[in-house]
Design brief:
Tetracycline Repressor, domain 2; Arc Repressor Mutant, subunit A; single chain; mainly alpha; 2 domains
């Protein structure tokens, strides 16, 4: 009985490991080659698979691309730390880092639009992504409001939504004009919402 269990687990574990390897290769390929330059063929070659072999581990290329975004988010922990407290400043650091990987920014923005279509593999990812970010930013805004440090007496969820829109809007502008300093502009927006120490 135990031997049969090991036999069952072996191929499954290898499949999970290979799927993760493909996902990591796809992330690196997008970062290196860009959204237009990265192809399933190149990802497959890097993984020692055929394109059909890649799609054995993912239902579609859209699912693979969505998984790349999930992996990108997990990698952001290396930038932010496991439990960042300052939501705004942390997100500004992430946006600054994003400027070094335009291919992943392009992928994110492309799937953000496509994922709005009902049934798209990225739909759940973006709903979770936006809800998580919103809760995090709202929490910080509530704390700042209770300390009297927010200039605008607006509902936290509204301010969080505006700040998130600024992040994605700046990334879209930056794809069209890489001379834009996204982090600087985002920092300017946030700091304009917060009272100076002399005013508190």
């Amino acid at each position: 009985m135990q031997m049969q269990e090991v036999k069952t687990r072996g191929p499954y574990a290898k499949g999970v490991a290979k799927r993760e390897e493909v996902r990591q290769i796809a992330l690196e390929t997008f970062a290196r080659r860009g959204y237009r330059g990265a192809t399933l063929r190149e990802i497959a070659d890097e993984a020692g698979l055929t394109v059909a072999g890649v799609l054995h581990y993912f239902d579609s290329k859209e699912e693979l691309f969505t998984e790349v975004l999930r992996l990108r988010d997990a990698a952001a922990v290396e930038i932010t730390g496991p439990s960042p407290r300052d939501a705004a400043e942390t997100l500004i650091r992430v946006v600054r880092h994003n400027a070094t990987v335009p291919g992943l920014v392009h992928l994110y923005m492309a799937l953000a639009v496509e994922g709005a279509v009902e049934g798209h593999p990225a739909q759940d990812y973006f709903q979770e992504h936006f809800a998580s970010l919103s809760d995090w930013i709202e929490g910080e805004i509530r704390e700042l409001q209770s300390d009297g440090r927010i200039k605008l007496q607006v509902q936290p969820e509204m301010l969080a939504s505006i700040f998130m829109a600024a992040i994605d809007g700046l990334q879209l502008q930056w794809l069209h004009d890489p001379s834009i300093d996204m982090a600087e502009r985002l920092s300017c927006l946030w700091n304009e919402l917060i009272l100076s120490p002399e005013q508190t």
